[in-house]
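Why run this: before we spend reagent on co-expression, it is cheaper to look at a predicted model of the complex and decide which construct boundaries make sense. The entries below are exactly what would go into the expression plan.
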Amino acid sequence: MTHPFDQALTLDLQALPPDADQAQAARVFAGRTHPDYANMVGPFGGVTAAQMLQAVLRHPDRLGDPLALTVNYAAGLRDAPFRIEARPARTNRSTQHWTLSLVQVDEGGQESTYVTATAVTAARRSTWSAVEAPMPSDVPAPESTERVAAPGRVRWTDRYDMRAIAGRLPMQWDGTEADSVTRLWVRDDPLRPLDFASLAAMSDVFFPRVWRRRAHMTPAGTVSITVYFHVSADGLAATGTGWLLGQARAQSFFNGFFDQSAELWNEAGHLLATTHQIVYYKE
Amino acid sequence: MTHPFDQALTLDLQALPPDADQAQAARVFAGRTHPDYANMVGPFGGVTAAQMLQAVLRHPDRLGDPLALTVNYAAGLRDAPFRIEARPARTNRSTQHWTLSLVQVDEGGQESTYVTATAVTAARRSTWSAVEAPMPSDVPAPESTERVAAPGRVRWTDRYDMRAIAGRLPMQWDGTEADSVTRLWVRDDPLRPLDFASLAAMSDVFFPRVWRRRAHMTPAGTVSITVYFHVSADGLAATGTGWLLGQARAQSFFNGFFDQSAELWNEAGHLLATTHQIVYYKE
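The model came back. Tokens follow.
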């Protein structure tokens, strides 16, 4: 059976019009939201980010592997088909710059932009390398930590085995202020070998920092996420179906929007991705 | 005399073609690079980011103030005129999503994309707010710290009064490894009241982290920068021409690209912006 994440990533490359310039053309992919990755309203944003990246990965003119991805959630997706357009805005010798948009038919029957994105892919060369943000060393093994109970209201959290180490969802919504840090182990459920698309999705598994900071439940939603990839295809293969250690925190909560920065390491301590987002919160 | 930064921000809004849809249309602005903000090759990337943001700020259909900005440097700008196209991809009740590109005529006489960007503007409401990343308290006053001597090779550094607190440029390029952290005070020179555009530019004043980390001079250049704004126009006005405290560090150096995260506080301790970039390095 096809893994649900691979089902969600399924994109159908549309034929170019006969008069189109075949080289370096914008290409259109048809896809749809997947019920296994449903959030409270619309899909889990991590899967949307992965779908945008997948359009780059599937583009016939792609050069290199993902280096940077920024996804802007302009409107909540409908549980319905969509089209992603991926355009190589510039191709250099070793880097390529992508512009993307996701379009759906809105309630009024009109095509509207729901997501915009940019991405950079790069053909990397081997150089001096170093991790300056080391994996926290004082963490219990994933096997000895408890799986985060799914809140039951959303489906996507069942698709990740998350083991809370610190900073779990508040047990009591009593307004007690704390720092916003969460540490957890995470991997796909069912197991699936890590790739760039799933790494992008896992960059968004952390619940809204404002809930942690305030022990106060308020509506929240990501407005824009950026993922930087610090790993090659070989490093992903070496990670395989292993656990990732994730850590997230906010730096500023200001008049309706907070930021969140997070890191994802594999068990060997390789920092695979650093990721940042700006998130709406109601109060 | 007009401040050089305002000269650099000068954009000439082009008339729409007579048949264009006047509402929510893409608008084109003509501008050019400014010699006072020249880098070793092409302009200082912070000013390019500010010019992209300025096209949003100048767009007649803009809603709200800057919340997020991502600028991708697809190719080194030529010291020449350019056109920026700013398009409101989606306008919601309180947020607006922007797609931008900068086009120049290349050496072969062809129009090419040199920069792509996305931005989000938002009409903020007053909510519970908090700074979780407080300004470092153990820093000397700007008046008692030494101005960073300009390396002499680039013009843009003369346009900022930067006072190094920690992690200055290595004095000896002897390969001694250190952490990548830099702290400094910064403000415009000549003085200029802070606004969103200059805050975007100051997000990019930090020299490449790889130089600090390794005490090794290697070619480096920003590929993509993201800025999150955590301040209102009132907060900018309150900051005025005061100093900003900036702090930058890398988390990963991997096969030709490192990341850099930075924070900018005003002297009152308000965290004005958090910013992230991914940077090419040669070796």
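Chain A touches chain B through 62 residues (CB under 8 Å). Chain A has one domain: 4-124+145-281. Bring this page to Monday's planning discussion.
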